[in-house]
Design brief:
This protein is an alpha+beta fold. 27% of the residues lie in helices and 17% in strands. It has 2 helices and 3 strands, in the order βαββα. Strands 1-3-2 form a 3-stranded antiparallel β-sheet.
Length: 66
C-alpha cells in the first residue's frame, strides 16, 4: 500500500510481528485487520524483506485453497 509492505502474518503471530521495527497494524478502513501488518520501507532493508516474506508464507501456507 503506497510504499509500505502489507503482510498477512495471522492472528497468532501479530504480536511478535508488531515488535519488529517499522511495523504497525494494517488499518486501511479505520478498522485494524486482525493478522495483518504493514511495514515501512525503511525497515525492509538488507535481509528484513526476506524475513517478512517468510513470516507471511508460514501463515498463508496453513490456509485452505480457494
Amino acid at each position: 500500500m503506497g510504499e509500505e509492505l502489507i503482510a498477512r502474518v495471522g492472528p497468532d503471530a501479530t504480536a511478535a510481528a508488531l515488535e519488529r521495527p517499522g511495523s504497525r497494524l494494517f488499518d486501511f478502513t479505520g478498522r485494524p485487520m486482525k493478522g495483518w501488518v504493514t511495514v515501512q520501507p525503511g525497515a525492509l532493508e538488507d535481509d528484513a524483506l526476506a524475513g517478512w516474506v517468510e513470516l507471511a508464507l508460514v501463515y498463508v501456507r496453513t490456509l485452505p485453497p480457494k
